[in-house]
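Per-record layout

source: Phascolarctos cinereus
name: Serine/threonine-protein phosphatase 4 regulatory subunit 4
length: 871
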Amino acid sequence: MPPLPLSAEMDFSQNSLFGYIEDLQELTIIERPVRRSLKTPEEIERLTVDEELNDIERAVYLLSSGQDVQGTSVVANLPFLMRQNPAETLRRVLPKVREVLHVAGVEMQLTAAASFLTILQEESVSIQTYSHSFLHIILQHVEHRDAGVSNAWLETLLSIIEALPKETLRHEILNPLVSKAQLSQTLQSRLVSCKLLGKLANKFEAHIIKREILPLVKSLCQDVEYEVRSCMCRQLDIIAQGIGTELTKSIVLPELIELARDESSSVRLAAFETLVNLLEMFDADDRSQTILPLVKSFCEKSFKADETILLSLSLHLGKLCHGLYGILTPDQHLRFLEFYKKLCTLGLQQENGHNDNQVPPPNQEQEKRYASVRKNCAYNFPAMIVFVDPKNFHMELYSTFFCLCHDPEVPVRHTIAICFYEVSKLLSSGVYLIYKELIALLQDESLEVLDALVDHLPETLELLTTGGESSVQESKLLAVPDLIPALTAAEQRAAGSLKWRTHEKILQKYACLPHIISSDQIYYRFLHRMFTIMITNNVLPVQKAASRTLCIFLRYNRKQEQRHEIIQKLIEQLGQGKSYWYRLRFLDTCEFIIELFSKSFFCKYFFLPALELTHDPVANVRMKLCYLLPKVKSTLKIPADKHLLQQLELCVRKLLCQEKDKDVLAIVKRTVLELDRMEMSMDAFQKRFYEKDSLDQEKEREELLLLEMEQLEKEKQQNEGRQNSDKVFEKKQRRDSKTSAVLPKTIPMSVAGSSSCTPSTSKEVKKSKLVRSQSFSSQALHPKYGNLEKCTGKNSTTVYATSVSGTGKSVLSYTDDSFRTRNSSGNASLYSNTSLPSTSRNINNSVDQKNNGSKDTQSRKATLKSRKSNP
């Protein structure tokens, strides 16, 4: 691109100069508030504190004459002062804090409430001292006019109630509640009384609650303000736990029934949630006769009422169905189930084109509420599986589960992904039904969904491969085709995002794959990917997670050739890599190898490559190796690894003598002291190393077992190959015998087979039969074949019955010259070293061969000549 002319770069015309001046004026306007915010010398003088004052004196001074921000700082620092000097703080600082809080603003009030609670939690003073010094200040500000400040002090007071003795609670809190809960008090005072009554119900005996607390509860349940009625209603389940079942049924339940019919929707909602929480306290009669009609009415009106009621109902529906289970009729059971299914698809009918009732499409706020309802339904899905019985899942809930897993809103899919493991456990033998949904969630476009699913991915995969109705191997074969692409795609999608923590978690969870899929599948689809992540990824936790998972894959790899390839790759590309970053990752891998493998394995493959890094040109690599040397030495066993110990000592001496980097040299000196204090493991048994040695022996046994299993698999494959070749040869023999049986019928015979043959002709026929039998017996037969019995018929064609050992079957073969010619070139060479079995045909023909030796030789020659002349 050519350079711009000067006039284009900067315009010095008059108009342009005026524009620049206006911009500068705007900048000065922006800077003016900054200048005004600076403190004047008088203000700085007022904020200056004498440096010679101690902490207590400085706090008293700032609370007396300082500004609000300084007072807030003192109040925030109150827990520190209580730890340093509690007596002086209580005597001098706390009275000043009490005075300041009367006129303090919201920020200081909130800070004081938090500081008072911290002092209680740290137990800086005894509970008696605390209640005497701090409780009155808290009670004075609980009814603050600001709702936020009041709630902050109330939370502090509710936390204090747990630690205060009963007498203090009764005199300082319960007795004043009698007057503060009256209608003549403010709304805020009555709301505070409701929450305090709920907290106090578990601190006293049942008769005190019945005499002093329950009358106040009934009065507040009938308050004229719906906020008070709703607040008191939400405390009834806590009060019921304190008074027991009998008083709950006689006093609390009638109040709940009345509140469930209240004119205010918020009060009815509070009553519904309280009834759900108290279901376990009521017997079957109360549930079926009293609670069930209220719940049915509430559910029927929920769609016509405010969406907040629908949200609460969807959140508590699982608990409600669980509490009513056992008292519902089949029709009621079906109605609750259909109601749940309807909530699961709420807001989706319009999108799918099923708006039968001509309801206007929801606005954006309604869509958010409907999505929240479906999210709550996803949260309750495990409870609904129990409600319908896992055996009926496929018929009743599978379609609903499918909809939730494919919901258009991410929070819904995120929630069902969290519940996926619980669903898998509940389905048990039917877990294979949700396999496709697992694949869909693994392929979900949202990483939040994937992150939630991965939390329990190892347990879920284990259930899918071992919990189905089919056997483990069959389940693996069924799961592999879709599972492996989904897992690889999930990892790559996380790798391509900026959420490295999700990527790290996925790599950590993939360490379970050796128990799920075969070693070859891991080798070809996952192992090299782990190595690539170690080399190319820029996030250190991700690299370490990939390194550890790769070591686990190597640990369970069943083929020695593949293991050697991986080890060689680690040493050459990481341990001897050009980048110091690769060499650092190699040391991380060595640390994981020491953790996961036996000592002998590390010493055999990684001990010397790790020590070679003592000569590394980068100081950070040498430093990391020094930190690793104690673990490296712990892998040695004396006297078997004495030569490796000498190598280690030689490397340490070189580091001490030749190291020039002061930081590395300091670490080397500390490492040498640690190495000298270490006790070496011996080949012989030692009690002090019993646990470590037994664990190492177990690892070594597992590694040897993998080698033995590999050898057995090779032998098995060889045996299967032999059996297959035997079967192929046997089939070929049978095919050839059948072919030879057909050929004599089509090829004209050289000798007539009629019964009216002359004696000379019959003699020649016998001679030709002998030649054919001898030529056939000279063929190399399979060792499985047994006796061959010669059977002669009326015709001139010779028939042999071949009995196959182990089968009891007889194969009839018609011997002919064409049969011998076909087999002599193919099978004779294949079994040339196989000893032929003795046959009855050879025994029968032995006499003829002895008597007619010379004639037999001549007849063979004549036969060969005739074949050459008549091909």
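summary: The longest strand covers residues 785-791. Residues 863 and 869 are 10 Å apart (CA to CA).
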